[in-house]
What does this fold into?
Amino acid sequence: MSVGINRYKADLRELCFVLFEQFGFSEYAGKGCYEGWDEATAKAILEETYRIAREVLGPLNSVGDREGCKVVDGRVKTPKGFADAWKQLFEAGVKQIAVRKEFGGQGGPYSLYALIEELTSGANTAFNMYPGLAWGAAEVIAEFGTEAQKKLFCQRMFTGQWGGTMCLTEPNAGSDVGSAVTKAVKQADGRYKLSGTKIFISGGDHDLAENIVHLVLARAEGAPAGTKGLSLFIVPRVRVDASGKLGELNDVQVASLEHKMGINGSATCVMNFGESGECYGELVGAAENQGLPQMFRMMNGARIAVGIQGLAVTSSAYLNALEYAKDRKQGAPFKQWKDPSVPRVAILEHPDVRRMLLELKAHVEGIRALVVKLAVHRDHYHVLAGRDDDQAAYHQGQVDLLTPLVKAYASEEAWRLCGQAIQIFGGAGFLKDWPVEQYARDSKIFSIYEGTTHIQSMDLVGRKLGQSGGANFTAFIGDINGFVEANKSHPVLGKDVERLSGAAEAFMQVAMGLMGWAQGGKVELVPLNGNRVLTMMSQLSVAWLLLDAGVKAEAALSKLPAGHADRAFYEGKRYSAQWFARNVLPNVEHLAKLAMIEDASPVEISDAAFAS
Amino acid sequence: MPLKILVTAKRVEDSESKIKVDAAGTGIVKEGLKYKINPFDEIGVEEALRLVAKHGGEVVVVSVGTKDVHEQLRHALAMGANKAVWVHHDGPIDQLGIAGCLQKVVEKEKPDLCILGKQAIDDDQGQVGQYLAEWLGWAQATFASKEESLESEAEKAKTPAIQLAADGKSITVIREVDGGLLTVSSPLPAVATTELRLNQPRYASLPGIMKAKSKPIEELTPAGLGVDVGVKLTVTKLAPPPARKAGIKVPDVATLVDKLKNEAKAL
It folds into this structure.
């Protein structure tokens, strides 16, 4: 039993709409590698996960925030209840849904898992990082490890027997990961002896599992400088033999814990490897200097997971703010605002509160659609791989293209919109009596870790837009244009659909401009506009997907009789689409105008001119 | 000795749904409601699973109603029940009809023990377990509970609260009664009904939900079972609890005391 109160809220009707009605779960579930999956099962799984989220994880969210983590006798002690929650989560099989069957999972679709991840992350962001990191680390071993490594580590990590971490960052190697100096010296028996310090290691130590498998980025002796000379090493906290039996400690120490603004239940550790010269690890796979692509595999999954964190807390912030706005009475109806004798009304009746709520609703739904769109592309890729390579490549290309958008846009908006949820609460929202202030604090890190927003924007403009000769980007724009062509005469949303054209064109213009700047001696304009370009593409994508949802909701609505309980839901989808298309989408064209001014003030201003 | 246990899974309105009385004033508005397994029945499923984990055997879950009850049967199967029986009936039915159907299913399945919720959270009738025991001529141990708290180690270890005798021929049940606990012993076969404090039901594991899809659901009908489900009990009026009245302001303490004494009779 937990001591806290659950505040987490999710709207399962909306989750089911996105997965089943908007993106056609049944078109790929039940096929190929997803044989045996169907909507009824997925729905039952979402319902049971939501129950676990509310009953097991939610009550620990504020507990973790207030209690935080401690180091006791050299070990991290997680907040009260976390160990029990870890056990229950894995017993219920929540984390194993999309894990391959050979590693003890159910082999389910990633799109379903993305929503499960939303429910667990939203209920308790800090807690969910521990199993999330174990998952990410196990994925890398499953992808790049030797057969022996897969056999020894994967199932144990996927099923919660052992935890896992990613140890990348060092004091002088954060965004600039190529400056890492942790050393790995090859021993006669083929193992490596590691030494170095890693910082900002989430879940670097904890008391939730019997062992923790660290994936440590280090430079093998004699390897080249920069990112090319990095290798990834498997470094268990407790040494294990080939059968998985635990042996002696492996000279991995927590040096200290960081004191943070948010996600306080997640232990952020400074880790020392090989302080006594006795830290042994093995290379992931068989070859040295493969660390960067291996790390990126892990990072891509983690970046999507961070986007989902942003979606998850914003969604709960919205639903909590909505409940509060229905309940809290303050002020007169706006048409009689000067009359003190009129009974006070719920703040939900005030136009500006409704504006803020609709802004939250539209963003939450649009970002969820973006996340699920990405995940559905990944599922289609897995169904088609080896059967239709052209189509599979298209889907993988869209996953690559949308990853920086999901990571950066969902995380930036989470911070802004959790702030807005506080605003709806007014003074109450600033208090710890309500969950929104914690959501805001927890959400700030999302735009920083696993590659900052600017790193995402450089990934987008420097790699993803031009990837495969621009084919992925062209296909993306093609998808939007196809949607506009098909729906520009829609009786309800046609005018709003048409707004997409102008925005898509403005965005293309800036994308072309980027190339011109890069080649035409104005290279500084690329980083100066990077975040702006990412915002433009995100807003364009979200508007498109909201309108797509709106068109599908209108079709469903037309089949329902008057007074049917589901009508309000579908009408809500229309308003989300309409509001976003009229209040956010036009911003894309505006941002294009700003970019075309080609302002370089931030690089022109001298250091001294900032302030002395 | 392995036990065969029959449990029930009534489909009831989720207590988190907003319940409204319908225009006729004899039922509720069902549109837009969420449904789940009756929580008392879920406790029965949990207890049966614990008994079977300890002694071996199997758990059969039964529900009576439209095809919608498959959701509740699948939930019990996902928790770990072995097979399900669906008594397909689309019209109205009362507790006599339900108990009649259950009696016939019991005669067909021949369980050693039936565990039912002591009542359902929708209409709170609390009669079916007692009818069933009476009509079967079996002993009944109603309101099964336990001494240990739901935070105890025994609960965490999923220990069954209903005790099976060493010879496997009788059970001991701790009943919750006014102001205390009453321990009763009964020969098998028997009917037990559950209290809220009997156990904390497990989550349906997600692999369990997958597995439940391939577990059998046998379809029966009241007619096929030879049960008359003609409704004998009708609801004539259903009304929500009276809304709280607005408070009043009193000018001074003396008036307050006076009102508490003479109007509210609280002093």
